[in-house]
């Protein structure tokens, strides 16, 4: 299996190719609830997580709610 | 007597809205927020820490959308595009929930809103189907423009965010209250209970604060004080204060005084 380069939360990351969103979160050791994923500046709806694959050069944001005013 | 009020399509009982930032720990946050009686609580949207512990708690487990109306904010955004992006992430995070607190900051030191960019962001968000509660300066013309754009609440600042200086320009807030038909909520700059009471006495529909509680020496006690302060101010406003007079006027009758 090949690795690809992506940017996640503005950090360069090498990840296995062909991951969908749940697999990516598992690879990153993130719990998959209560967070949102954006791929190349578009929100990935949770219903589309399984069918959305991450490719070379993709830019991802993974965010959650935190305390704020 | 019920004194509920409406923001967009939703009805709320408490006129005090609170933030969830700056607490010493999670338990203090939830204790203070429950004590405040708030229905609406604000949160920020931020990147997860990629190295984070898988078992690290999430604020939405503690402060649940089942118990409170979560109001995601756009704190930290400097442009309309950043705010729209943040709100879209929040909407997906909260299962399609469209009520947001828009704040577009102009300067990282003053944290004062960039009003031209705020107005643009409000219009963009409304086009995207969001219900926008908008943090703004106490500028009358912008308040009117934001209501005209379709914002569901106009939220002028009392004083800069986190400053605790109280209402610096009550006349400006009062002018906005007189003109604007959607709820007017004082947001930011409240320091203590009397500031919240004054906001309500001026006729505001509600108060949004965070640091005034989280930054108090005893946050849970201050949360209780704020809940009572907002209620007292609201009652005083509804009761209609007596006119001010330059002259003294004895409360006890003059007649029948025993004098020599």
Quick synopsis:
The complex is a heterodimer of chains A (69) and B (260). Chain A is mainly β.
Descriptive notes:
The complex is a heterodimer of chains A (69) and B (260). With 69 residues, chain A is mainly beta. Chain A has a single domain (3-64), classed as Ubiquitin-like (UB roll), CATH 3.10.20.30. In chain A, 10% of the residues lie in helices and 41% in strands. Chain A has a 5-stranded mixed beta sheet, with helices on one face. The model of chain A has no long low-confidence stretch (mean pLDDT 95). By secondary structure, chain B is α/β, with parallel strands linked by helices. In chain B, the strands form 4 sheets. Chain B has a 3-stranded parallel beta sheet. A 3-stranded parallel beta sheet of chain B has the order 6-7-8. Chain B has a two-stranded antiparallel ribbon with strand order 1-2. Chain B is globular and about 85 Å long. Chains A and B meet through strand 5 of A and strand 4, helix 2 and helix 3 of B.
Topology:
The complex is a heterodimer of chains A (69) and B (260).
Chain A: E1 3-8, E2 11-16, H1 21-27, E3 36-39, E4 42-44, E5 59-67
Parallel strand pairs in A: 1-5
Antiparallel strand pairs in A: 1-2, 3-4, 3-5
Chain B: E1 5-7, E2 10-12, E3 16-18, H1 26-36, E4 40-47, H2 59-62, E5 69-72, H3 80-93, E6 99-102, H4 115-127, E7 131-136, H5 140-149, E8 153-156, H6 170-179, E9 185-187, H7 193-201, E10 206-209, H8 211-214, H9 219-239
Parallel strand pairs in B: 3-10, 4-5, 6-7, 7-8, 9-10
Antiparallel strand pairs in B: 1-2
Helix pairs in contact in B: 1-9, 3-4, 4-5, 7-9
Order of helices and strands of chain B: EEEHEHEHEHEHEHEHEHH
Question: Stretches of chain A where pLDDT falls below 50 for ≥5 residues?
Answer: none
State which percent range the strand residues of chain A make up.
35-45%
Number of strands of chain A: 5
CATH superfamily of chain A: Beta-grasp domain
Per CATH, the architecture of chain A is Roll
Mean pLDDT of chain B: 95
Give a count of the beta strands of chain B, DSSP E runs of length 2 or more.
10
Multimeric state: heterodimer
Instruction: Count helical runs of chain B.
Output: 9
Query: Numbering strands along the chain, what is their spatial order in the largest sheet of chain B?
Result: 3-10-9
Q: Percent of residues of chain A in helical segments? A: 10-25%
- Globular, elongated, flat, extended or rod-shaped: what is the shape of chain A? globular
Rg of chain A, Å, rounded: 12 Å
């Amino acid at each position: 299996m090949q690795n690809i380069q992506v940017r996640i939360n503005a950090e360069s990351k090498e990840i296995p190719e062909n991951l969908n969103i749940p697999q990516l979160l598992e690879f990153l050791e993130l719990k998959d609830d209560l967070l949102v994923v954006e791929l190349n500046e578009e929100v990935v709806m949770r219903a589309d997580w399984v069918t959305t694959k991450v490719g070379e050069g993709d830019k991802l944001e993974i965010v959650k709610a935190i305390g704020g005013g | 007597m019920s004194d509920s009020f409406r923001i967009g399509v939703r009805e709320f009982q408490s006129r005090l809205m609170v933030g969830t930032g700056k607490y010493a720990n999670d338990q203090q946050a939830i204790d203070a927020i429950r004590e405040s009686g708030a229905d609406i609580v604000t949160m920020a949207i931020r990147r997860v820490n990629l190295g984070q512990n898988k078992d690290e708690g999430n604020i939405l487990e503690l402060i649940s959308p089942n118990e409170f109306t979560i109001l995601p904010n756009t704190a930290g955004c400097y442009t309309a595009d950043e705010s729209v992006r943040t709100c879209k992430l929040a909407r997906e995070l909260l299962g399609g929930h469209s009520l947001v607190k828009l704040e577009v900051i102009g300067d990282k030191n003053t944290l004062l809103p960039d009003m031209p960019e705020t107005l643009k962001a409000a219009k963009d968000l409304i086009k995207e189907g969001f219900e926008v509660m908008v943090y703004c300066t106490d500028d009358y013309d912008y308040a009117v423009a934001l209501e005209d754009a379709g914002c569901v609440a106009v939220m002028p600042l009392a004083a800069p965010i986190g400053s605790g200086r109280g209402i610096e320009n009550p006349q400006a807030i009062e002018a906005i209250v007189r003109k604007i038909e959607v709820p007017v909520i004082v947001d930011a700059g409240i320091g203590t209970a009397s500031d919240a009471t004054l906001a309500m006495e001026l006729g505001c529909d509600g108060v949004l604060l965070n640091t005034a509680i989280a930054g108090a020496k005893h946050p849970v006690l201050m949360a209780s004080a704020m809940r009572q302060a907002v209620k007292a101010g609201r009652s005083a406003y509804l009761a209609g204060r007596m006119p001010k007079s330059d002259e003294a006027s004895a409360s006890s009758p003059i007649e029948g005084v025993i004098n020599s």
